[in-house]
Amino acid sequence: MIKPNRMKGFILVIIGTIFWGIGGTVSNELFKEYSIDVNWLVTTRLLVAGFLLLAIKTCGNNRSQIIGVWKHKRTASQLIIFGLIGMLGVQYTYMAAINYGNAAVATLLQNLSPVMIIIYLILRKQTVLTKRDLMIVGLSIVGCFFLLTNGSLTRLSVSTPAVFWGILSGVAAAFYTLYAVNLLKKYDSLVIVGWAMIIGGVALSFIHPAWQIHLTAIPLRFSLYLAFVILFGTMIAFWFFIESLKSLSPKETSLLGSLEPLSAVLATVFWLKEPFGAFQWVGTVCIFGMLLLLAFNKKTISSAPIQKVPQSSA
Hints:
The chain has one domain (4-213, 226-295).
């Protein structure tokens, strides 16, 4: 039986990552149909989503946190680091990997973040590696690979810059997931995510301001696509993902991010009417197997006691 707080975390991260995946597909359509600049889209989605999240917070409890987060130098500096390296880092490196390669490779490399998180926690002696960890990570990586490539190795033949930015995207995603935990102990997720988006959006505005858009007319479909990317693919996706860290471990939340490529592939199949290959079904089974191992493991990887690793006398 899954505990209520863990169930809430699972629901939040699942919804968030599904919106991430669908938002990525819609963003791809914006690039293809309207040839908009990647930097413009990232700047716009971060700024608008950030202001909306803070606006939502003003209607709830503890509104003083919106300003209060800046009153302590340590917290303010942590928030700036999270906004620039975490939020903007995830956004920019992922888009750069797509630009130099393709979405499949970019997503595969970004989904190495659970492995990076586990390695980091082991080095910090905050966890120990178990067979179940290896099985869960293996299912996640294999599932993502088959979902995005349908078993074709030729799709992985990309340039060195694509691999470079893709690996950086995985590092940024791992940092984003781990670094948020301490901030969430003090402040609401709406405040942290909202300000992080604004910080990232303002920084990227020096490269491509949101008000500089190269469209002579703005069609209704473009507006609807953009609204979905901002509201669901950015605001709700990032908010729910970070909020899930209150009841799940960074390792679990990161692994559940494997649902992103699954939702992206399904959106492509049902919306863009592209076929679903045999190996993609294998990938789907791997992802759901990973979900079951995470959800119904009595001794979860988040709650398992950390054992002292004996120091070598060599």
